[in-house]
Amino acid sequence: DRQTLLAVLQFLRRSNLRESEEILRREARLLGDDLGAAALSPAGTGLLGAPGGDADSTGGEALLSRVTAAAAIAIGGSAATLLLCADAFAVGGAVVVEDQPDVSAVLSAYNQQGDPTLYEEYYSGLKHFIECSLDCHRAELSQLFYPLFVHMYLELVYNQHESEAKSFFERFHGDQECYYQDDLRVLSSLTKKEHMKGNETMLDFRTSKFVLRISRDSYQLLKRHLQEKQNNQIWNIVQEHLYIDIFDGMPRSKQQIDAMVGSLAGEAKREANKAKVFFGLLKEPEFDVPLDDEDEEGENEEGKPKKKKPKKDSVGSKSKKQDPNAPPQNRIPLPELKDSDKLDKVMNMKEAARRVRLGPECLPSICFYTFLNAYQGLTAVDITDDSSMIVGGFADSTVRVWSVTPKKLRSVKTAADLSLIDKESDDVLERIMDEKTASELKILYGHSGPVYGTSFSPDRNYLLSCSEDGTVRLWSLQTFTCLVGYKGHNYPVWDTQFSPYGYYFVSGGHDRVARLWATDHYQPLRIFAGHLADVTCTRFHPNSNYIATGSADRTVRLWDVLNGNCVRIFTGHKGPIHSLAFSPNGRFLATGATDGRVLLWDIGHGLMVGELKGHTDTVYALRFSRDGEILASGSMDNTVRLWDAVKAFEDLETDDFTTATGHINLPENSQDLLLGTYMTKSTPVIHLHFTRRNLLLAAGAYSSQ
């Protein structure tokens, strides 16, 4: 509101806080000294926490006196949220802005405290008020219970009221939602001020504001109640530690809220999912597909090659049109195509021509690779794009590569032998391989801890593995030796994956960050920081411009490779995320977690569009079929489930209102989308892969319980 803004600016000027005045002016797009004629941009709506309720007093002066008295006004809105709190002003009058607060500073915010004996009364008073409010508001306001409970408990512990803290915890911890059980277990172990110093989880809870999304009506109701009751303790926590994302419109129902909450820091702010994302695919390079070399295959059935020719051309022509949602072709530098890559692309097109069209009427066959007697403990699996090799990472720190075609794995000959070869001969690539080394299995030694992630390069020349030892290793599949050890993570690395174009790869680990690397650089090119707990899985978008990361903080983030920014935050899972899969057209993302749910996201709109319930244990593997008609999920419950992806994504409600408020309407019953459930005898499914012809390969280690 314009008057308030002018009053605040005048107050800042009188107090000689020039810097703050400038910042506020830039945020509100008021330039120069033109305070009189200035008009606030329409985005800054809603005035939070002005001490006298809403800004209704007339004249800047009356307002100014109110502002001076409080010196703490928050102008919350969709464009910019600026908190000018009394605590933010240092003694000298300069504003202290700290990005990474140090522990003591963070915890000292718990100093201003009320009477410890009244905490239970405050909390139960609010609880009573919320439980007696109208149904439409109750669901929204119930979101306050958990963050207030945690902050009030921590405040009691920090100020050394240990017995009050204990009784507060015991009285109210049973009321919290079931999906916060793990966090409450950590919380219950913090009973002394000293415990809080080293505890990362609690530090995160303190530093990142817990985000609640509440309709304006529910918020006004809450504010009125707290001000009438003069319940300053709770109001202070709301102001200090919570970020209330207010939207205009109908309050959300319990189901809508339940679908979205559950992460460590509440929901994502709506602004977090507003940035533009180029989710389209890059244009395929054009080259001629030689049609002659398959005539010999089709000789026995004369019509065969003829039928294929038009199909081939359509494959070529289909990719000529630029996708309007695709990033510019040169947005990030991608490696040049080598001749061998072009050959592989041709092979891929030929295979695609014979691909089976899947659908509810035509489900894929599933071929299961069971690792028997895997006493070394199978911890990771990957399969090459052409399905010719399979790799296992093991807890005994070995990486084992198998050939799953009759063609054995061979190493290149020694340098002395290579010098004898005639470089001009046609079969030079055959001649450089050493027949004596041919075998079905190669074991790669080098890591000094369990191997948690493996990934083949698209050209099948390299293999990545990441381990508990903190390194990512690049292995050559020509010599079966280690080429590079990338050291950047100081803690276990949980996952790694090559870009679909090769050259780049991503890794994520216990240090809560994901790193983007290029094979020829020792140092990471980008560090993606923002998760509040381990990064448990990583995935490249099909256009290689974005990376999705899943974390133990129960959120999924989408990062822009170009500038390292986080462009999407998806909340809704109730446990650590363990699997991610992009749809082949790049528009959707499927995520699986320890809660056994598979959630579907629309990347462009930044919305949850589906929830697939059926698994009873962690979902470790997700894969879309080659044309995106079917989503396969594999879980620790020893099943593979097939879901109808076409139906899941058709006629989505993504109107402007939904996008603006996040009112998602998930179909009640995901059973309509379940096409089939396939049990193994006793093998948890840890990897899934669709071959180029849409045969589904699954892998896991037999466990004899």
Would you kindly provide a written description of the structure presented here, covering whatever features stand out?
The chain has 705 residues and is α+β, with helices and mostly antiparallel strands. It folds into three domains: 28 residues; 137 residues, Serine Threonine Protein Phosphatase 5, Tetratricopeptide repeat (Alpha Horseshoe), CATH 1.25.40; 329 residues, YVTN repeat-like/Quinoprotein amine dehydrogenase (Methylamine Dehydrogenase, Chain H), CATH 2.130.10. It has 21 helices and 32 strands. The strands form nine sheets. Strands 7-8-9-10 form a four-stranded antiparallel beta sheet, with no helix packed on it. The chain is elongated and about 90 Å long. One of its GO terms (molecular function) is RNA polymerase II general transcription initiation factor activity. Keywords: Nucleus, Repeat, Transcription, Transcription regulation, WD repeat. This is Transcription initiation factor TFIID subunit 5. Belongs to the WD repeat TAF5 family.
How large is the share of residues in beta strands?
Answer: 15-25%
Helix content: 25-40%
Question: Using only CA atoms, what is the Rg?
Answer: 29 Å
CATH-defined architecture of the largest domain: 7 Propeller
Number of self-contained structural domains: 3
Structural class by SSE content = alpha+beta
Poorly predicted segments: 32-101, 292-319
CATH class of the largest domain: Mainly Beta
Number of helices: 21
Shape: elongated
Distance between the termini: 66 Å
Total strands: 32
Biggest β-sheet strands, sense, barrel:
4 strands, antiparallel
Mean pLDDT: 80
User: Any idea of the CATH topology of the largest domain?
Assistant: Methylamine Dehydrogenase, Chain H
Pfam family, one: TFIID_NTD2
Protein name: Transcription initiation factor TFIID subunit 5
GO biological process, one term: transcription initiation at RNA polymerase II promoter
Organism: Ardeotis kori
